Amino acid sequence: MTPESFRRRRAEMVMRYAVAGGEAAEAAAARQIDAALPGGPDTPGELLRSAWSGPHEVGWIWASMPGRVVPDLAWIDELVVDEGFRRRGFGEAIMRATEAALAAGGATRAALNVFGGNDGARRLYERLGYTVTLQELTAVPYASPPGPVTLVPLAGPAARIEASVAATAAEFGLGPVQARERVMARQTPATVNAAVVAGGRAVGWVSYSPRHFSRPRSGGIYRLDIDPPYRSVGYGTAAVRAVLTELAGLPGVLTSVPRPAVWLHRLGFRLSAQHMAHELPTGGKRRRRAGSAGESCT
Predict the structure, then answer these.
(1) DSSP string spanning 65-89?
(2) CA separation for the pair 254, 217 (Å, rounded)
(3) Statement: the pTM of the whole predicted model exceeds 0.85
(4) Rounded to whole angstroms, how far apart are CA atoms 8 and 139?
(5) Which CATH number applies to 3-108+280-297?
């Protein structure tokens, strides 16, 4: 991508980031992009490519080699097919060319984020072999009548937090260091670690906050574990209702799950984004779409 193309595409990207982030102002979005791309299109470890079909620029892509976003994954930051060129196979062609470049640079897996309502992008990535590794859900908290559980602050949450590190690693496919970083990032001064109590006994625990660790205007539910003897009787649902009651009045509550969770949708949560990942090609002949001759990324 040339510096001139980057300046033009950067302005488009700032506006998209500001709108998609909701809470992020345009200036904050610009700072975020500039911090990630201090050298513009020549930033080491970043691939910014304009996509061409013959004489026509049809879109562009931004991808990162492993390390900046996720330690062991390449990351697809942005894929844009310009209006007038959509639904013609260019998105898939751009992705395949970029995956080949990432693999040539040594990356073995790639991941990306899809906003909740972008069904067209989700279908494209599914065709390319990407599968869901994490879903981000959002709900507007509301008060519920008292249920079968109460939330009691844990006097010593260390054992529960430590156990959640191993569980997080298994659920999200993380290494032990990354899992610990993920868990501890959510243990802020505002975090509440509470026992889920039913019938006078602790049946599990929940970790939540009225100030989400990365989006402080919203609340967050970070972890919910119901102990094995007490599962499948509704305590998890009751615990989430209790947390939503505690956080009623906030504009939103965020949570992340490693796989689709229909029961959370029944409680009012809606999909806001999902992360997807897959293995990159390692060689051999690549399938080529009909009509893709003359397409290139530069």
Answers:
(1) -TTSSBTTBEEEEEEEE-TTSTTSS
(2) 11
(3) no
(4) 36
(5) 3.40.630.30
Structural domain 138-272, CATH architecture: 3-Layer(aba) Sandwich (3.40)
Tokens of 98: 């970029």
Q: Are 17 and 32 in contact (CB under 8 A)?
A: yes
Summarised one tens digit per residue, pLDDT across range 265-286 is: 999 999 999 999 999 987 544 4
> 23 pLDDT exceeds 60?
no
Q: How confident is the model at residue 297 (pLDDT cuts 50, 70, 90)?
A: low
- The domain spans of the chain are 3-108+280-297, 138-272
DSSP 267-292: TT-EEEEEEEEEEPP-SSPPP--TT-
pLDDT, residue 290, reads: 35
**138-272: same fold as 3-108+280-297?**
yes
Backbone angles phi, psi at 255, to 5 degrees: -150, 160
Q: Per residue in 56-81, pLDDT tens?
A: 999 999 999 998 877 778 999 999 99
Closest C-alpha among 2, 252, 217, 239 to residue 141: 252
Taking every pair of C-alpha atoms in the chain, what is the biggest distance, in angstroms? 72
Give the span between the Cα atoms of 59 and 51, in whole angstroms.
Answer: 5
